[in-house]
Predict the structure of Threonylcarbamoyl-AMP synthase.
Amino acid sequence: MILDGNLDASVQAAARALQRGELLGLPTETVYGLAADSDNDAAVAQIFAAKGRPANHPLIVHVADSAAITRYAKEVPVFAQQLIDAFWPGPLTLILPRLPHAARASTGGQDSVGLRCPSHPVARAVLAACQRLEPPVWGVSAPSANKFGRVSPTTARHVADEFGDALLVLDGGACEVGIESTIVDCTRGVPVLLRPGAVTRDDIERACGLRPLSKEELPAHTPRASGTLLAHYAPNAKVRLMDARQLQSALDILGSEGRHIAVYHRSPLRSTAQGITLRAMPAQALDAARELFGTLRDFDEIGARLIWIETPPDTADWEGVRDRLQRAAAAG
Ligand code: TXA
Ligand code: MG
């Protein structure tokens, strides 16, 4: 059932559903989440079951404000606090050392916890309402509301399509950011970028004075992030990434038969193929992120079997979009 997330009655109903241990489709500024009370192990187990997600992939705990951090994290390094001050509420998740009894099922028993304070007004209203309940719900675990390995949802309709009408979904409109939050591991003394997103490597460096390392620059490490599995975010069609010249050659070779092929391009292209779908990618990275997952879903819906995408620039602002496209291509 989809409820209007802008109505107070819907927000209250959603908070009480979370308190009872039920699941909720929750809009955030990045993507829609499949939410449950972080400290209710049975409720959290339902998230893993509904998504078909392996239990050793930890979930992000969403909090109403930075005061709630102390319920989940043992300590907050100085550079992490600077990132919180700069980017919360917003699309940034921090991995912090976990308090022993907090969010156990949600973190798969790992000694760290992922915390995020979303900026979407409906998410903020739900999290605030949760804190006012008796007993309160302090943290809300929410992975993206898609089946494991699939494209993340950016509208309430995507969530209902994926999980059916029995799930309560708050409609908060189309997501502004469109790709999942940036994840920074703050448990290693220096910031480590686990998943790129709208908060870029450059933004992080400006806020805390430290250039984040990539996972690959670290010695062998344990936490596993499903957003970091190579084949992820995959549409049904096969995705191929090409530069502008390769893309034009592929179209030239193709000739006149273009059905089942969708092209997402940045440079001007020529094609005489019949039935081909050509869509231009927005010129700005933030705009491209916003429409990325919806576009992949549209291509699936029109029956594309091949999706050819022009590789975005190799700059920090495009890192999040590039990352999601590379994963989608690796899945094929
Ligand atoms: O934008 C987002 O972050 C969205 C919205 C709903 O907030 N959520 C989201 O959740 O993308 P999910 O579960 O699809 O991705 C969370 C990622 C996973 O790859 C998970 O493994 C990683 O965060 N993660 C969570 N806790 C972690 C931890 N303690 N250590 C390492 N990685 C962690
Ligand atoms: Mg996900």
